[in-house]
Structure prediction request, 178 residues.
Amino acid sequence: MSLEPASAPTFNPDPYRVGDLLVDVGLRRVTRAGLELSITRRSFDLLLALVHAAPNVMTVKELMDQVWPGVVVSPETVIQRIMLLRQGLGDSADIPRYVAAVRGHGYRMAAPVNMPAVLPAQSQPTEAETSASTVAMEAATADALEPSPAEPAGRAAPGTHRRIPVGLAGVLALVIGA
Prediction:
């Protein structure tokens, strides 16, 4: 008997299409309509386990073994993490779009899952979209580096939130570091 913890399964690094979501395994991110959703590392692992098993149901025990290999967790941990995943996806337990509970059995993906080999061609950006995205990113970088006159530096107006794309955050970190 080995004392080594079980290793997590490996998944195809290509993106999966889950309903209107794009789950990019290689970059470990989830986007909807080009906007990145805020999904924590463990919630992302849980989503991947459900995507990989789709359309089948995964029991709470299977989820515990796969998402927390070699770690002792309770079923309540899985329930809490499902709740956080749903929150990050903008999903609801009452009317699930992505993650459905199967009473007495576990959880499954409610949205259709297209494996990497069958992703629609339009999921890959065209050259024009890539160029437009680059121009938009450069403009957003310039805007993010210079606060608007109506708003003090470093503070957002009450009730508003600024979301900076992850790639842009990296660029900003390099600029600030220099």
